[in-house]
Amino acid sequence: MKTMRSLLLLLALPVMVYAQANESFQARQANLEDLSTANPANTSAMTFDYSYRGVKGTPYRYDSWQKGVIWTRKDKTIEVGMLNIHLVDQILLAAVSPGNAAQIPADSLKRVVVAGTNDMVFVPLPVEEVEGQAASNKKGGRSAFYELLAEGRLSLYKRTEKPFMEANYKGAYSADRPYDEYMEENHYYVLHDGEYVEVKPRRRSIEKALPAFKTQIRELVKAENLDLTTDEGMKELFRLLNGA
Fold first, then answer.
1. What is the reported pLDDT for 46?
2. What average pLDDT does this structure show over 13-40?
3. Which residues, 6 or more positions from 228, have their beta carbon under 8 angstroms from its beta carbon?
4. Which long-range contacts (CB under 8 A, 24 or more apart) does 90-93 make?
5. Nearest 10 degrees: CA dihedral of 189, 234, 158, 177?
6. 146 vs 190: CA distance, rounded Å
7. What is the pTM of this model?
8. In sequence order, what are the beta bridge partners of 198?
9. Using an 8 Å Cβ cutoff, are 49 and 56 in contact?
10. Residue 152 in contact with residue 242, Cβ under 8 Å?
11. Of 133, 134, 220, 229, which is most buried, counting CB atoms within 10 Å of its CB?
12. For residue range 160-203, what is the model confidence (pLDDT) as tens digits?
């Protein structure tokens, strides 16, 4: 008889444990709902979109702080231990030490040199002057940071932009991109005889923009085997065109 009671208790134990576990879960769920509705502004539990993957990229020129030197419009030179360029707002973040970064608009600067193996030079220029009135109106009519790749009778500038693209993954015709992203776009401009002209990093585009140099461009690209899809190839072409 005692053995029979033990057997019946053993058989009933899973049912009892399940009931207790289920009750515990329901109690915890109720507590969560009470927390959610405790705030009058929240009348239901928040739902999360677990398909969303956050933000890719940054609006900055560099992924980390850089060292460099800046020249102000008043010809004052300042060495900074930490700097970066916000390419959306077109401001320079500069700090002598951590924790006190200043936000300096492009309009206030003449030149920025980022120290490195090959120093990178950025020159703030009016967008209207370089890219035209339409671009200036679209981008706020302010100055922007242009990287100086080559300087001489033919000066080559590059502007890097970081347009923000929102996630697009809902609906039958979505792009299946479950994340926001700062895209990177590069645009090249040549200054010749006081005028700026946009060029693509391709031989024919440069020849079309600079017809007086067409033969020279073609010969140099072939003789030096220049890859114009890279900044190094573009810089070398214009260095040679400038007779350096």
1. 44
2. 45
3. 201, 202, 203, 206, 221, 234, 237
4. 90/142, 90/143, 90/144, 90/145, 92/145
5. 110
6. 11
7. 0.73
8. 189
9. no
10. yes
11. 220
12. 999 888 777 666 555 666 778 888 999 999 999 999 999 999 99
Q: How far apart are CA 188 and CA 176, in angstroms?
A: 31
Rounded CA gap, 35 and 145, in Å? Answer: 49
Amino acid found at 225: N
Q: What secondary structure does DSSP assign to the chain, as a single string? A: -HHHHHHHHHHHHHHHHHHHHHHHHHHHHHHHHHHHHTSTT--SPPP--TT---EES-SBSSSS-EEEEEEETT--EEEEEEEEEETTTTEEEEESSTT--EEEEGGGEEEEEE-SSS-EEEEEEEHHHHH-HHHHHHTTS-EEEEEEEE-SSSEEEEEEE--EE--B--STT---B-SEEE--EEEEEEEETTEEEEE-SSHHHHHHH-GGGHHHHHHHHHHHT--TTSHHHHHHHHHHHTT-
Confidence label for 120 from pLDDT (cuts 50, 70 and 90) = very high
Closest CA to 123 of 78, 169, 70, 62: 70
Residue 45's Cα: distance from chain center in Å? 34
